[in-house]
Amino acid sequence: MNMSNDELKQVAKTIRKDIIKMLTESGSGHPGGSLSAVEILTTLYYHEMNVNSEKPHDPDRDRFVLSKGHAAPALYSVLAEKGFFDKDELMKLRKIGSMLQGHPNMNYIPGIDMSTGSLGQGISAAVGMALAGKLDKKDYRVYTLLGDGELAEGQVWEAAMSAAHYKLDNLTAFVDHNGLQIDGKCVDVMNSNPVDEKFKAFGWNVIVINGHDFEQIINAIQEAKSVKNKPTVIICETVKGKGVSFMENQAGWHGSVPNKEQCAQALKEIGGEE
Fold first, then answer.
1. For the Transketolase N-terminal domain, which residue ranges apply (predicted)?
2. Gyration radius of the chain over CA positions
3. What pLDDT, in 10s, does the model give residues 168-209?
4. Would you kindly state where each structural domain of the chain is located, as residue ranges?
5. Section 81-86 average pLDDT
């Protein structure tokens, strides 16, 4: 399963193309925060996590919870590319009768470990999964991905406090720290900085990396696995809308989707077909 950085980069290109195409087809959704999380999800599913599309409910599998549930297009693409369901489903995103809702639903989609969307609840569920793993003496690991705007939710910090209290060293959280949320800059809407010092104060091991650098992500995960008696958070400095010039660092692309002309331009920039 261990891919080279070049192979991971090619997968990331495919994921980004899927995101753009499915959001253009659906006419609604969230491109900015989906594109910023691509390298994190690609590394987890193609390099690190013990998951099998033929056994999505394997009790010994690693778990992933997308706490920033609105970035579902990125996760859906990864799962489809990994064979959890047919890629044709991607073009049915948010359509009546489709299993691919605007936010992940574990009741309908193979590979989804927790239904999410209400911010703060995902990391809380991930803490519960990690605690269950400890109680059941299982070796699986639990990963969760939060948005930086999501850190304004008080429930996030209750979960963080619980994870440290129960010494959940089988839990690794990623923060997609792209600096923007739906209403603008996170520091203007509700400043949660310094994020690293907050997690340290709550008893977490903290790693800060470039969230688009595969080598840094891989190394951070390995460090997290070596840390005992405390959870790890990997704060990933990212670019909202990464890979598409007119979307990068633009809060307006949090929940706006491209038209056909913009789709063609985006695919060309990413390196895909028009």
1. 9-271
2. 17
3. 999 999 999 999 999 999 999 999 999 999 999 999 999 999
4. 5-270
5. 97
Collapse the DSSP code of 249 into the 3-class scheme (helix H, G, I; strand E, B; otherwise coil) and give the result: coil
> CA-CA distance, 131 to 63, in Å (whole number)?
12
**What DSSP state is assigned to residue 76?**
H
For residue 164, how many C-alpha atoms fall within 13 Å in the half-sphere facing its CB? 16
Give, for 129, the enclosing helix (H) or strand (E).
helix 121-135
Closest by CA position to 64, among listed 164, 169, 158, 140: 140
Identity of the residue numbered 15: I
Third-level CATH fold of 5-270 = Rossmann fold (3.40.50)
Average pLDDT, the chain: 96
Number of Cα atoms under 13 Å in the Cβ half of residue 50: 9
Q: How far apart are CA 67 and CA 118, in angstroms?
A: 8
Which residues, in sequence order, are CB contacts of 190 under 8 Å at separation 6+? 149, 152
- Are 115 and 105 spatial neighbours (Cβ–Cβ below 8 Å)? yes
Amino acid (one-letter) located at 210: N
Q: N- to C-terminal Cα distance for the chain?
A: 30
| Tens digits of residue pLDDT in 61-83 | 999 999 999 999 999 999 999 99
Q: How far apart are CA 177 and CA 91, in angstroms?
A: 28
List 206's β-bridge partners, or say none: 233
Residue 253, both tokens = 């692309």
What sign results for the dihedral spanned by CA atoms 249, 186, 125, 101? Answer: negative
